[in-house]
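Good morning,

Both structures are done.
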Amino acid sequence: MIDWKMRSVESIVSELPPSSSATAVVGAGGDRGGGGWLYGWFVECHGLWHNVLMIVPSVLFVLYLASQAKRSFSKVYNGRSHVVAALYAILWLVSIFNLAWCSLQAWECAPGKQFMWSVISLFTTSGMLFLEVSLIAFLLQGNYASGREALTQTFLISAIVVGLDISLKGIYLFGFGIQLFDVSNNGSQWALWVFHKLLLTGVYGLIFFMYRSRWRERLPARPAFQNYISIMFYVNATALLACALAAHGTGFGLWLYNITVICYHAMYLPLLYITFLADFLQEDDLHLENVYYSEMKDAGFFDVDWE
């Protein structure tokens, strides 16, 4: 009796049209038509909040740059600083790459997209590293270099450092087949990331302590620069700790590393803009000189008893 009932149920199910039996299951999120692809793009791989925290700040920053583009282009065109003009142009390019990288997080978990994910990750991280190294090189030149001299020296140093970085990452990616930008990998990429973060932490730490020593007069006096160095030192030190923990298979290290990645890609470009470009692009020349003088005075660079 039970066997007869089971066979009758199976016969009824087999006679149903495909749309009645399969569409309900696929429509729950497995299809790629309608809203299914959007669900997979936002929710799968890293999860909804990870993607939102990456994409939304990147979109807002690009929209802000676009809203200020007319005024900023006028300031850059009429300005006399080659360094500011070059940084502004590179900032636009890197912001677009970063927005694309943040928007394509689902590629990291798609087997057929690993090569494209590695390429766009390589370009994006190298562009952001180029900005980092350029600003470090500019700061270390102190208050004496300006114009074409500062631009040439700054970008030469940046090109050499980033060229070596791309070469090393390319060997890992395309030579040894190690997926550097796949955090779910077997752990062979962490040695490079520990070395990478160790170098950046060391450089930012050196400048951080220079600003708090008797050699601080060799660096630009603006407090905004000091705040930038402090933030980048703490972020890279945290990333170094996270990479070291993740290399030993610690789940907390992987979680902490993901937090630093979100903070870096979501907040670094706005931080750079506020620190180095906002005053040049929004303030009048005479007012800008007064702002710099006030900041230097507040920092104690005009104290009589300062050594």
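Second structure follows.
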Amino acid sequence: MAPQKRPAEEAESLLVGVRSLLLDIEGTTTPISFVEKTLFPYVTNNIESYLNKNFENADVQKAIAALRDQAAKEKDEKVEGVVEIPSGDASKEDVIKAVIDNVKWQMDENRKTTELKALQGFIWKEAFESSEIKGELFEDVGPMLKMLAEEGFKLYVFSSASIQSQKLLFSYSNQGDLSDVFSGYFDTTTGSKRDKASYKKIATEIGHEPKDILFLTDIPEEAEAAVGAGLRSALVIRPGNEELTDENLQNFACIERFDELYGDEDEEDDIKRFAGGNGEADDDDEEEEEGDEDEEEEEEGDDA
């Protein structure tokens, strides 16, 4: 028998008591295929021309120095396959070639190091700002993020991508500029996404109790780390994501779209809002619904 999600009605309580939402990107707001088939190939196809054009830029030099230090440290640690980068007094051509080889090696290994993500972010910046690339979001993401922000929820991002890359994706998205809905961004400079200490740091910086923060991710290990830090967490099931186990589905609330945060809705064109942004439904509305049901039962009784 195929694994089953926990009952859908449990989603009705996902936002009750929540003050802030912390969002993963890849596999949560954005298809994994966009990262693998658009962003990563753009770097490998354009890194040489980018470095040749921007080699003297201070930020690029800082990124190269960080990659050089990282490679030297990993060489001492005997990391297999590490590509060293020659010192600054080497020729421009030699340095660029080594940086390219280092970056491609790290990407082939699917590494998520801060040093790699920083240089990737610089390369993507040109692509986003020139409209060569648009940040791809699942169709429910933009409308729901706007609604959540309007209702007073504070929205934050925690991704292995650099903060600059995160801002670019949401500022130049296929659903318009969504940068104004976010209150802050976190990347690997905060720590690993699978380390509960990272989530404790984030809660402290946000200024909310961990229990008042809901973390949305497609990775069970990240959800477990967040819960270990006292946060709430729900798993997001999207096309192209790695299949969750039955244990994953039973241990965490699971949603397939962000509008499921509000639970099942009868309305086709509108999503019922929680009173005060994150409270329970209005009691008067519930009484009216009960009254309507009673009237319907009386009418059915008269017809019988």
